[in-house]
Specification:
Largest sheet of chain A: 2 strands, antiparallel
Radius of gyration of chain A: 21 Å
Distance between the termini of chain B: 32 Å
Distance between the termini of chain A: 30 Å
Strand content of chain A: under 5%
Number of helices of chain B: 11
Number of strands of chain B: 0
Order of helices and strands of chain B: HHHHHHHHHHH
Strand order of the largest sheet of chain A: 1-2
Largest sheet of chain B: none
Shape of chain B: globular
Oligomer: heterodimer
Chain lengths: 282, 261
């Protein structure tokens, strides 16, 4: 009686395998799509690099005025910090909260809800694939910045390993929290103010603006209670700084903790959000 | 004369249209407050680690910040929305409607949009500038004030020319909307005196994306740093850019084959 083709039924039995299949295919299409618009992507990346280069120049200038150090950190540290920053930033760009509004308004969500897979998987896989191309395009920029600014970078094997994991941790932390925040779009079309507040808090408390130790102590204390630094400062510092083995591994655990917190928040919000959702378009 | 009339008419319609959405004023107010707050926080942070940056004091950099916020606000009222519309319309094929009108295409492309609530940024910039000036001990002469006004105007013209080049680029590279992000990134360089940047970057933000002319030069005027040669260079460069970009626009237009028809 069944009209489901044999192959599809086989896939259903192996849920894990079909999930892996889905991720591979979605990532591959993302790679193709990003590569198609490589000029546009490059413009985007160049614009993105402006931010760390400006900060780098400012702090380098100050360090050089004071004999090469700020709070014991040498000029080369700042160069390394902001160059690694560009890779970490590339990795933690995710499907932003404000775009949920677009997704709802344009009726895209209606279609996505009909699929047997949660839309979050789609986002994670798509952006993970896009990052492959972004990293490829980022490499020449990194080489150029290295020549121009002379970074002080001397990581151990463990640091490199932790960094390789931590950038994906950063990606997942931001995915979870941005998605959770995006759920606001189910209740209001004026989330912009809240999103701006969130981005500003992140800017100041994450290490995106400056290495956290340069912040006043009270800011560092506040930063402890938020996930922000685990998506910026920790991945950068794991490669650039001199963290102990304990701090490195502890950092990965902290990342996992915040991923789970974000996921819990998202799932909670998602459940009531979908109940509220009345389809638009389709 | 006709150009001015057309521009004025579009401006009136645009403003009326925007005034319908009054809540946007509150949203803009909030966003401007955040922009300003972050700018001030970064300056405070920098000056907690040093007394002067490349010869600029805290108060002088406040002036620079004010001018940058003001300039970006002004560009976002009138220049950027128009140019982004051209880019969008080229992609969607609706730009043909503008081309079939009897008015000069560059004029028409440059006057159709206005984002009046961005005026909030202009005022917020002016307030920061005023506050910065009040902290500076040296007096602002009448000549400095005139030089400031002229350099501000020239700067706006140059940024317009930059945007026009980008918009014209859409005739070749259709997917140009990322350039808006590029501009938003580069315009942040204006928060700091160009003198701190390494040579290649200084050249770039002076002649390729004229942020230095648009922000640093006016700031030099109000902090009595401006040399008259710089102002003269600004005049010549603005005139050159204006002529060159007009030629480029027409060149691009000849090549453009339309997308909707």
């Amino acid at each position: 009686m069944s009209v489901i083709p044999q192959s599809a039924r086989l896939r259903q039995t192996g849920a894990l395998r079909s999930m892996v299949d889905f991720y591979v295919v979605r990532m591959r299409t993302a790679v193709q799509q990003q590569f198609q618009y490589r000029v546009a992507t490059y413009f985007y990346m160049l614009g993105m690099v402006a931010e760390p280069v400006i900060l780098l120049v400012v702090w380098t200038t100050i360090a050089e005025q004071q004999g090469g150090f700020i709070q014991g950190l040498p000029v080369g540290y700042f160069a390394a910090y902001y160059i690694v920053w560009t890779l970490v930033r590339n990795m933690n760009i995710v499907f932003g909260a404000p775009y949920w509004e677009h997704r709802i308004r344009e009726g895209q969500l209606s279609g996505q809800l009909l699929r047997p897979l949660h839309p979050l998987h789609d986002d994670i896989a798509y952006f993970a694939g896009a990052k492959v191309i972004w990293i490829l395009l980022w490499l020449p920029i990194a080489v150029a910045l290295t020549f121009l600014f002379d970074p002080l970078l001397d990581p151990t094997a463990l640091e490199i390993g932790v960094f390789a994991l931590a950038i994906w941790g950063a990606y997942l932390i931001r995915t979870m929290f941005m998605s959770a925040l995006g759920m606001l779009c189910f209740w209001t079309t004026r989330g912009a103010a809240i999103f701006d507040m969130y981005m500003t808090s992140e800017l100041l408390l994450s290490g995106r603006l400056v290495p956290l130790p340069l912040m006043p102590d009270w800011v560092e204390d506040i930063a402890r209670f938020f996930p922000f630094q685990w998506a910026f400062f920790f991945p950068i510092e794991s490669l650039v700084g001199d963290l102990t083995t304990r701090e490195l591994l502890g950092g990965l655990v902290a990342q996992l903790f915040w991923i789970l917190v974000g996921l819990a928040l998202f799932s909670l919000a998602w459940r009531s959000a979908v109940k509220r959702f009345s389809a638009v378009g389709g | 004369m006709n150009t001015v009339r057309v521009a004025w008419l579009f401006l009136k319609i645009g403003v009326l249209n925007e005034l319908q959405y009054r809540v946007n004023f509150v949203v803009q107010l909030f966003q401007s407050a955040i922009t300003l707050g972050v700018g001030l926080a970064v300056l405070a942070l920098v000056y907690s680690h040093t007394d002067e940056l490349n010869g600029w004091s805290h108060a002088e950099l406040l002036c620079l910040l004010g001018i940058q916020i003001l300039m970006v606000g002004a560009i976002k009222i009138y220049v950027q929305p128009n140019m982004e519309r051209v880019i969008d319309e080229v992609r969607e094929g609706t730009f043909d409607y503008a081309l079939t009108k009897p008015e000069d295409s560059q004029v028409l492309a440059s006057v159709r949009e206005v984002r009046i609530w961005q005026v909030v940024n202009v005022f917020s910039g002016l307030i920061v500038l005023g506050f910065g000036l009040s902290q500076i001990t040296t007096d602002l002469g009448a000549l400095d004030a005139v030089a400031f006004a002229i350099s501000l105007l020239l700067g706006a013209v140059m940024i317009y020319c930059f945007w026009l080049v980008i918009a014209t680029g859409a005739f070749w590279v259709v997917n140009m909307w990322h350039v808006a992000e590029l501009f938003d990134g580069l315009v942040q360089t204006g928060r700091w005196p160009v003198g701190i940047y390494p040579g290649w970057l200084r050249f770039g933000i002076t002649f390729l994306v004229p942020v230095a002319f648009a922000v640093t030069v006016p700031a030099e005027a109000v902090t009595s740093r401006l040399e008259w040669e710089t102002l003269l260079l600004a005049v010549v460069f603005a005139a050159f850019l204006f002529a060159a970009t007009r030629w480029f626009w027409r060149f691009g237009l000849r090549r453009y084959s339309g997308a909707s028809a």
